[in-house]
Specification:
CATH topology of the largest domain: Substrate Binding Domain Of Dnak, Chain:A, Domain 2
Order of helices and strands: HHHHH
Strand content: under 5%
Distance between the termini: 75 Å
Shape: elongated
Helix content: over 70%
Largest sheet: none
């Protein structure tokens, strides 16, 4: 292999790499207008997401208190655990615009109301419970719009 072949081969490799870079950039800039359509249940997905975030903080707090011997938090921990399971599914179905969303919204409304009631018992002492209570109330209200 002589110098000319090495230079030609290098130039071809550089051109191929540049072509791949240009192609990747064009692909990245390709617009999918149908992806910009608003999600019908976006507000429900956001509400469920807030419940999940606030509920995780609440359950972590409950577990600390339970570990310290505060058995009064057991029912709160149980209701939050159930709410977390349901709102995880609710959020996924809302994001997928699932045909099962109305049934899940109906169930989630009840679970969120139960969690709201349980957290309300501790809301005056624990900010984590108050925040969870409020997010559950908001999610239950949002579920009402979609429930079957």
């Amino acid at each position: 292999m002589d110098r000319r072949e090495v230079l030609t081969g290098g130039a071809l490799l550089a051109a191929a790499a540049m072509a791949n870079t240009v192609f990747a950039a064009e692909e990245a800039m390709h617009e999918h207008h149908h992806h910009d359509m608003p999600l019908p249940a976006a507000s429900l997905a956001a509400s469920a997401s807030d419940c999940l975030q606030k509920g995780q903080v609440c359950i972590d707090h409950c577990l600390i208190l339970l570990g310290d011997g505060d058995k009064a938090m057991a029912a709160c921990a149980q209701s939050v655990t159930q709410m977390l399971a349901i709102c995880t599914t609710l959020q996924r179905l809302a994001n997928a615009n699932s045909k099962y969303l109305p049934q899940m919204a109906k169930l989630a409304k009840e679970v969120c109301k139960d969690c709201e009631a349980e957290c309300k018992k501790h809301a005056d002492k624990h900010k984590q419970c108050k925040d969870c209570q409020e997010s559950c109330a908001a999610c239950a209200k949002e579920c009402e719009k979609f429930a079957a």
